[in-house]
Amino acid sequence: MPKNIVQEAWTSRETFASVLLAMFIDRFGIEGVEWDPATITLEIEEEFNVDLPQLSLDKLFVAIQLITTDKFLTSLPDFITFCNVLSGDEYNPELWDPADAEEVAWGLTEAVMLSPLEDGDAFSEEIRAYIGSVLDSEGILNPPDVLKIALREARISPNIEEFSDDPTMFNAVYDLEAGKTADINKTIEMRLSLLAAQLRALDLKNGKTEELVKILESSTTQRSK
Predict the structure, then answer these.
(1) Contacts of 119 (CB under 8 A, 6+ apart)
(2) Which of 83, 84, 114, 174 has its CA 20 to 30 A from that of 93?
(3) Within a 10 A sphere around the Cβ of 44, how many other Cβ atoms?
């Protein structure tokens, strides 16, 4: 891959965390994930002749945390931060930024791709309860598969329950809330396609991305059916 394309990948807001991590490990080896953030930043900027934007650094550091720690599974503040960053938000420790359903859905999708899980129960109850509260607050009755690890108390959305005696309004609100799930699935499908395209464009020195691309494309095809 020409150097200017590599530089663009490192500096674009659209580059996924998984792609940044793949480029980093390919050039510096897996041992590079143990370096401190300042060293990582310096090595990348010198090697690729780029000035790394904050978002690229945030995404890379989140990706590294995902493969080296269990914070995403056990710490709610970290879970929320990771989902936000993976979805394209810069990390701001002074700002409380709750992750919405779409951000959680994508965060889970990319995080589990980087660090596969065998069981959704690996997540702490606090994290699963948070996901449940997000779904309840957004009125999502039947969430996308990736969000079904949620712990929920409400059996029916308050928005729908309000119109339980009015079939017309009940169906209208139900259709509106069902559309939210469809929108999230569409967003995930689109991002998986973009991620596959970015990985396909990589010209790695020490690895190949073909198998991962096939998995992503298969997942996208299944979601579109």
Answers:
(1) none
(2) 114
(3) 22
Burial of 77 (0-12, 13-18, 19+ CB in 10 A): exposed
- Closest by CA to 10, choosing from 214, 198, 207, 213, is 198
**Torsion on CA atoms 211, 212, 218, 224, rounded to nearest 10:** -160
Q: Is the separation of the CB atoms in 168 and 127 below 8 Å?
A: no
68 CB contacts (<8 Å, ≥6 apart)?
A: 33, 34
Q: Quick: pLDDT tens for 94-105.
A: 888 999 999 999
Residue type, 89: D
Token reading at 22:
């793949």
Residue in the structure block whose two tokens are 């169906």: 171
What amino acid occupies position 131?
A: I
Contacts of 144 (CB under 8 A, 6+ apart): 105, 181, 184, 185, 188
pTM: 0.83
Instruction: Quote the DSSP letter at residue 111.
Output: H
DSSP, collapsed to helix, strand or coil, labels residue 209 as coil
Classify residue 160 as left (phi > 0), alpha (psi -120 to 50) or beta: alpha
Q: 């930043």: which residue's tokens?
A: 41
Q: Return the higher-pLDDT residue of 138 and 105.
A: 105
The DSSP result for 17-48, as a single string, is: HHHHHHHHHHHH-GGGGGS-HHHHHHHHHHHH
